[in-house]
Structures
1.
Amino acid sequence: MYYVLVIIASVVRIFLYAVELAMLLRAIFSWFPMDPNKFTDLLYAITEPFIYPIRRLFQKMNWFQNVPLDIPFLVTYLLISAVTLFL
């Protein structure tokens, strides 16, 4: 039973590392003006399901509405990093 839990934790950790990498790439590509392409569409498809609930919560609570930074993106990245750290 212990080995099954270790394998599950490892798979989840690898998945979360991939999401973190996709988020970093998305942030880097956001600095450069370019037309949407298949790669950026893929990055958005991977990362947006994680960011959207936090973004929705912040909009509902009217938090950080006039801040030029994407705070929900940063909060999501920090939450994923914290979960990865604890696994």
2.
Amino acid sequence: MRYILRTGLFSAISTGYALLRGTRGKPITWRAALGWISWAITFALAIGAVKDLRRQERGLPVAMDSPFAPKPDKREMREKRRDEVRRISNER
């Protein structure tokens, strides 16, 4: 239950239900197709968030683009950028 309310899955399911009710019995237009594509993307992202949350809770590695990924230290990122700039300037 906590996964449904915490990750936007409930919102994606309820939006899909509303979209289904709104398009039932009507011809498919490009707007309806875009609505369904948008819903599919939202639903896939919600499922991915649930998957990443479960992996994090079990202590398994999570992808760096996940909202549950550990955030790098600002100092560490700054030093990494400096090193990259130095490397690029030394190549010239």
